[in-house]
Write a structure and sequence with these properties.
The protein is α/β, with parallel strands linked by helices and 170 residues long. The chain has eight helices and five strands.
């Protein structure tokens, strides 16, 4: 064994962030994050970002009633996200993994990066929908933006439709 290899220390991930978008494809990273959490005795933080509808955001500056509608939309979206994350949290807890769930408001990539930095996350595990060409250019890739801006390792799993719930079924 050379000196360089002898000097290598094992890498342990104690805090794993899993951003979710509420879709089954977005859950593709969950089985991998769960296995890493078990092996590393780590905790998982589930994060979903609620984005505001641009049209409603623009309208709220013009009329107070539209501003109220926008606020109601955000509250409803946050409630739905919280319910969704709590369901995923319960599935992970059956594997004896400590899990936290958080919902934030803003631009997904930016919020994921900020959350990871502010909470001293060791690794981000996320799914990529595998968009390419014009669709990727039009929609953008949150996963790509996170990968480029993250100061911690990012595990990217190409979504294939496999979810944590499907993994549990015989």
């Amino acid at each position: 064994m050379n000196k360089e290899a002898a000097d290598l220390q094992p890498v342990f991930f104690k805090k794993i962030l899993v951003p979710l978008d509420g879709s089954q494809l977005g859950e593709a990273a969950l089985p991998y994050a769960a296995k890493l959490a078990v092996v590393n005795n780590a905790e998982i933080t589930l994060l979903q970002i609620v984005t505001t509808n641009q049209d409603l955001a623009l309208a709220e500056s013009y009329t107070s009633s539209m501003g109220q509608l926008s606020e109601e939309y955000v509250q409803h979206a946050m409630s739905q996200a919280t319910q969704y994350l709590n369901r995923i949290k319960m599935l992970l807890e059956t594997k004896d993994i400590p899990v936290h769930a958080h919902v934030e408001i803003g631009f997904p990539a930016e919020q994921i990066i900020n959350y990871a930095r502010e909470h001293e996350i060791d690794m981000i595990a996320m799914s990529t929908h595998g968009r390419s060409g014009i669709n990727r250019w039009l929609v953008g890739s949150v996963a790509d933006k996170v990968m480029r801006a993250s100061s911690v390792p990012v595990l990217m799993i190409r979504a294939s439709g496999k979810s944590l719930e499907k993994e549990r079924q015989p």
